[in-house]
Amino acid sequence: MLLTLDVGNTQTVIGLYRGAQADEVPITWRIRTNKAAAVDDIRAKLLPLFSLASIDPTSIDAAILASVVPALTEAWRSAIRSIWGIEAMMCTADAAQRVGLFKASYANPHEIGQDRIADAVAARALFGAPVMVVDFGTATNIEAIDRSGAFVGGVIAPGLKTGADALFSHATKLAATELVAPAHIIGSNTEEAIQSGVIFGESFRADALIRGMVAELGEKPRGEGGACSIVATGGFAELVSQYSSIITDVEPNLTLIGLRLVAQNREEEG
Questions:
Q1: Strands across the sheet with 89-90, in order?
Q2: What is the pLDDT of residues 12-71, one digit of tens each?
Q3: Is 6 a catalytic residue?
Q4: Which one of the listed residues 115, 135, 207, 249 is annotated catalytic?
């Protein structure tokens, strides 16, 4: 069984793949990222998940990790080593390039976030090229893969909840509110006005950025007669993509799928 881990700034997504079927949906858990977690803390959080799901933890024989939290990267690798006696692979540009899943037309591929690499690998495998990925998480990342299949760059912007939290913390008269979309763009009260600005604002901003990026590639969106698919992923993908005029697909497990592809191809290369 393959353990895939996407360690983000706010959430850590854990995925388990049992078999080799390309369309297998992983068993997944989302836990809050604790940036101060030590190895014992990770073990105490991870092992009960297996027990609650009635999964034999000894069935793990491989692991791969994407982390954007350097302080936690070695803690997770050490926890995996102590539990299963295996070395977790890292989803680096070099690792993905070695197995032919990733190429970059980018000044310094080593600075590309590991989650961005996994997203690009999965998007190209699932949707072909050209393709855009918009990952709605702590940050909103938009990745551009050109017609040749190369990662050419993207956009990193504050995420939906990051922006909302900043608004609530800096505007003293605006109280935190539930992040659901109101019925209309024009809010009829303060709560609806905030919800409109946060949710519709995020969707419209992403649409405008994606349109500009697609045009720079000399392409058109698939939904508008072109060849470029636009796939959304991340914790807020389902919510935000409902109000997008350009997103063509939603794949909540895109990052985990990319990690799995890199891990499987490394094993075959092996």
A1: 27-32, 11-17, 2-7, 62-67, 89-90
A2: 999 999 876 777 888 999 999 999 999 999 999 999 999 888 999 889 999 999 999 999
A3: no
A4: 115
